[in-house]
Amino acid sequence: MSAGPLVTSILATVRRVLENMSRAERAFVGRRAADAQMSDEGQKAAVRLQRLMGRQGEMAGFFNASRDRIKALLSRSVELEATATAMAEQMEALRADEEALADAVAAVKSNSRAISNLARSARLLAINASVEAARAGQAGAGFAVVAKEMQALSDESAARVEAISTHLDRLDGRLADMDARTGQNEVHLDQLRKAASDMKSVLERAFLRAEEGRDAANEIHAEIAAELDELTNFIHLLGEGGRQTDDAKDVLDENRRLAEAILAELTEAEADVPLRHGSAS
Questions:
Q1: Among 145, 153, 199, 209, which one is most buried in terms of CB atoms within 10 A?
Q2: Cα 103 from Cα 145, distance rounded (Å)
Q3: pTM for the predicted model, two decimal places
Q4: Cα separation, 232 vs 39, whole angstroms
Q5: 242 Cβ contact partners less than 8 Å away, ≥ 6 residues apart
Q6: Which uninterrupted H or E stretch holds 202?
Q7: How far apart are CA 109 and CA 115, in angstroms?
Q8: Cβ-contact 30, 249 below 8 angstroms
Q9: Does 29 score more than 50 pLDDT?
Q10: Model pLDDT for residues 92-136, shown as the tens digit of each residue
Q11: Exposed/middle/buried for 153, CB within 10 Å: 0-12, 13-18, 19+?
């Protein structure tokens, strides 16, 4: 094979190589632009994820603060329920004391009625003794004095029993009023204790919901942080890939310059071949 066709063949090959290099350069430029756009979008997404992660952190803080407040309220509701229960127990003891006092008043009333009956009987006996002493004349004078004292004593006893009965009636009325108020207080305490128990149940459920919300927010925060790390790594890989693309393009540019130089030399050599061939002839 002569030098002319060989040079022509090499020239064609070099031209195809240069065309391929041109296509590769365009591909490198397109790839670099795509990488830059993906990196820019990734950075924007990273910023949005950081903001979202911050909001999730705030939400977790909100749930945690709510949990602490609910826990404090729950502690107070437990104390309130315990206080209401203690007061109810005291009211039961007070009612027992009232019943005992009412029984004592009833017993005193019964005894006062018995004393009143005895006083009336003694007064009748004193009156009868006075009558018999009057009939006896001088002989019954001493007995008449005793009968008079007995009548005065029975009258005084009757007056005192009546006064005691009046005081007992007043005390009985006050005990009835106290019993009514105690009943009302027991109703109110039962309502308070039920309200405290209901509030405790509501707060316990709210406490669990707050803990669940906090845990969910923390879990989402962790997931976003993991996604952000992956995105940051992806952006880093894009940057590394971009640098490798730039390095490859630099090598391609260098090879292109070499190929263009070779093409220029081969073109010159191709032009010289016919001349040398003519001289040889």
A1: 199
A2: 41
A3: 0.53
A4: 10
A5: 32, 35, 36, 39
A6: helix 141-280
A7: 10
A8: no
A9: yes
A10: 888 888 888 888 888 887 887 787 777 778 777 777 777 777 777
A11: middle
